[in-house]
Amino acid sequence: MYDDARHLHAPANAQGDSDPEETQEWRDALLSLLDAGGPQRAREILDMLARVAGESGLAWRPGLNTPYVNTIAASAQPPFPGDLAMEERLASLMRWNALAMVVRANQAYGELGGHIASYASAADLFEVGFNHFFRAGVPDAADLVFYQPHSAPGVYARAFLEGRLAERDLAHYRRELAAPRHGAQGLSSYPHPWLMPAFWQFPTGSMGIGPISSIYHARFMRYLSHRGLLDTTGRRIWGIFGDGEMDEPESMSALTLAAREKLDNLVWVVNCNLQRLDGPVRGNGRIVDELEALFAGAGWNVIKLLWGSDWDGLFARDTNGALRQAFARTVDGQLQTFAAKDGRFNRERFFGQDPELAALAEGLTDAQIDLLKRGGHDLVKIHAAYHAAARHAGRPTVILAQTKKGYGMGEAGQGRMTTHQQKKLDRDALLAFRDRFELPLDDEQAASLAFYHPGPDSAEVRYLQEKRTALGGHLPARPVRAEPLPVPALETWGKFAIAPEGKEMSTTMAFVRMLGSLLKDPTLGPRIVPIVADEARTFGMAGLFRQVGIYASAGQCYEPEDIGSVLSYREASNGQILEEGISEAGAISSWVAAATSYSVHGTPMLPFYIYYSMFGFQRIGDLIWAAADQRARGFLLGATAGRTTLGGEGLQHQDGSSLLSAAAVPNCRAYDPAFAAETAVLIEHGMRAMLEEQQDVFYYLTLINENQAQPTLPDGVRDGIVQGLYRYAGHGKGEPAARLLGSGAILREAIAASQMLADDWDIPTEVWSATSYSELARQAQDVERWNRLHPGQAPRTSHLERCLGGTQPVIAASDYVRAWPALIAPHCAARFVALGTDGFGRSDTRAELRDFFEVDRRHIVLATLDALAREGRIDIECCQRAIARYGIDVESAAPWTR
């Protein structure tokens, strides 16, 4: 008899059955088929019957849930390849050291936080991976592992036993600033590559970021292989995530992509400890059932790992399916209660539900019932699940591993509502934890939370090191071995932009033309990754479809409608463009995979992700922040930038804040160029910084969709463009009375205002192109700080001070909120006036919008006159005349109030 079909012998449920006798005959027939042909033949017949049902119009389809038991039958488990007792002992030592880290930090300082219960539940899931599956080595051969963030103390505890971290490092968990003063390395709260660049690869602390990132990293590995850049065959991505984390939209948003792309290099392990931060994940239901249906429906291979080996005997004796029926009617809230209670309670409340269950437990003591393991705590069962996942072909795999949150913490936290917040344990709880895991600590060592290391020559450490050596080395690790990538001279790909001779184009159009030229470079071109979120035609990129193609793992299996056109849609397995559909979260995840390829794969790539600027930092800022954490290198292009350039689109599409958000990301260099020449200079500078100098920075450039005559790049301004400010022009005779700063779409308004001030008011002014207020402010802050900390030395001067020294008023106009140009206000000695687009957007023409937000040339003129009047340099009556002359509505409400 096929082992996994034992439960089919249970009597048919007659409730609602019009013919129980016939039903039993069908059951017997299926059992006979299993006996004679095995499971594969049974699947073939069942698939055929499902097709017949569909073809006949029968409104039926198979359910997506299977019984609440392990997917892999005991008889199908491979032999465990390690020393089971040794590995259980190692897991216990790591549990203790992880617990000691958190509790010591909170006993000593009371405010550092940390988590015990998550790693207590996931320790065995990690250990089987570390000992048997997670491969390390050089970047182009290693597996990628996304770690459940709250389990970081356990990963540190393993590194301690491996000799990679010292005891003093563990003692400085969450004390990153104080640690160096004590000769220690501070350990970050969660996985943070920016803080521990040789250790962590992927930041996962913001829930949902790890899951979506792992999917797009898996797809990007296939992209590298299909394009012939790197052979990723055999490499795998493992993600260990929480069941509560699956509620995040990012966790679920790309499941169908993983199945559609047949990413069998991807394995998720969902730690189903049934508990979120405050209580059950699904108190009145079963999260395992919900996730099984979700993943199976999305096309994933689902492996349920629910019950440990101790349950095998109970299932074997359960000929009538009593256990399965009991699990089918037990919700997670009750399972959590069972986890929190002892063996006696479980005997009475679970096994005592009916006589058949009680009979199954008769041979077990209360202590044995208490020690019945859930599947995620059984190394043998975990290994069987991982082994099956690693060998599954054609689909991504998810392992739903049931555990107990706070496993082993007893009354102090196991399965309790408050366990996630448990930071401290009293003496009795510590001694109980020691006894539960048979730790080699005396009472005083346990009570004092002594870290335990068996010694570098101990059997435990030798075993652990041998296992890691066989798998290629230690993990986590972030080796950076990428060679610099040469950047072609700007004149070879952007001459049309720096010397356009007045030709009309938008900076968006100019960027796409530059990108097309860069793609032709024999060295850099293959490393460029153009990325769009279903807006390539909007941005004028359709010509690239034919030039480099759109990546599709299956190639193009159809004849496109526009096959005869010059701009026809072309997909190819070696296509270069990543066209992600309407998913900004997916597109930025692809960008991150490419932007970190230099460290993850040892293969530097240069991604350009172009998108509607409004749908960048505002919509996916958390993913961009995670990109910064993992030291991404690449370009983000905010197209149709500003609040007045996308006239007809209105409130939801007009961007007035992305540059301000970008300015808050420390390693993001944000620019708002007005001209194609400025854009070209910034792209060249960024490429050299990231590819040749290998700086851990990324660039955000805004792009304008307004076709205008483009000026030739003046001599001697390249450095000013990069630093954020250069003098563009002057109008009028004599010393300038004021300085007008403009950027992006509003620079031309400032230029026009300067001419109006000269022509209408005989006031000379000069115009400055402010390509980046954030770069100006950062450098000014650096200089200000240096001067403050070095009072006895000659003071330094900032680029901003050298440009705008003196007392002439400064009027800065932007297509972004006032806070963007106001970043430099504290560093300007002269009167400073910021004009911006605060408020909600509207649908209208560009001219109407600039008037509405009071950033057009007329308002810049008025702001200049007002500043000069308040300085006593002109009569205030000039302002009244200007209002009348230019028809400015003084009674309208401020735009930010409307």
From TrEMBL:
<keyword id="KW-0670">Pyruvate</keyword>
<dbReference type="InterPro" id="IPR017600">
    <property type="entry name" value="Alpha-ketoglut_DH"/>
</dbReference>
<feature type="binding site">
    <location>
        <position position="275"/>
    </location>
    <ligand>
        <name>Mg(2+)</name>
    </ligand>
</feature>
<dbReference type="GO" id="GO:0004739">
    <property type="term" value="F:pyruvate dehydrogenase (acetyl-transferring) activity"/>
</dbReference>
<keyword id="KW-0460">Magnesium</keyword>
<feature type="binding site">
    <location>
        <position position="273"/>
    </location>
    <ligand>
        <name>Mg(2+)</name>
    </ligand>
</feature>
<comment type="function">
    <text>Component of the pyruvate dehydrogenase (PDH) complex, that catalyzes the overall conversion of pyruvate to acetyl-CoA and CO(2).</text>
</comment>
<comment type="similarity">
    <text>Belongs to the transketolase family.</text>
</comment>
<feature type="region of interest" description="Disordered">
    <location>
        <begin position="1"/>
        <end position="23"/>
    </location>
</feature>
<dbReference type="InterPro" id="IPR055152">
    <property type="entry name" value="Transketolase-like_C_2"/>
</dbReference>
<dbReference type="InterPro" id="IPR029061">
    <property type="entry name" value="THDP-binding"/>
</dbReference>
<protein>
    <recommendedName>
        <fullName>Pyruvate dehydrogenase E1 component</fullName>
        <ecNumber>1.2.4.1</ecNumber>
    </recommendedName>
</protein>
<dbReference type="Pfam" id="PF00456">
    <property type="entry name" value="Transketolase_N"/>
</dbReference>
<dbReference type="Pfam" id="PF17831">
    <property type="entry name" value="PDH_E1_M"/>
</dbReference>
<dbReference type="InterPro" id="IPR005475">
    <property type="entry name" value="Transketolase-like_Pyr-bd"/>
</dbReference>
<keyword id="KW-0786">Thiamine pyrophosphate</keyword>
<keyword id="KW-0560">Oxidoreductase</keyword>
<dbReference type="GO" id="GO:0046872">
    <property type="term" value="F:metal ion binding"/>
</dbReference>
<dbReference type="InterPro" id="IPR051157">
    <property type="entry name" value="PDH/Transketolase"/>
</dbReference>
<keyword id="KW-0479">Metal-binding</keyword>
<feature type="domain" description="Transketolase-like pyrimidine-binding">
    <location>
        <begin position="505"/>
        <end position="708"/>
    </location>
</feature>
<dbReference type="InterPro" id="IPR005474">
    <property type="entry name" value="Transketolase_N"/>
</dbReference>
<feature type="binding site">
    <location>
        <position position="243"/>
    </location>
    <ligand>
        <name>Mg(2+)</name>
    </ligand>
</feature>
<dbReference type="InterPro" id="IPR035807">
    <property type="entry name" value="PDC_E1_N"/>
</dbReference>
<dbReference type="InterPro" id="IPR009014">
    <property type="entry name" value="Transketo_C/PFOR_II"/>
</dbReference>
<dbReference type="InterPro" id="IPR041621">
    <property type="entry name" value="PDH_E1_M"/>
</dbReference>
<dbReference type="Pfam" id="PF22613">
    <property type="entry name" value="Transketolase_C_1"/>
</dbReference>
<dbReference type="InterPro" id="IPR004660">
    <property type="entry name" value="PDH_E1"/>
</dbReference>
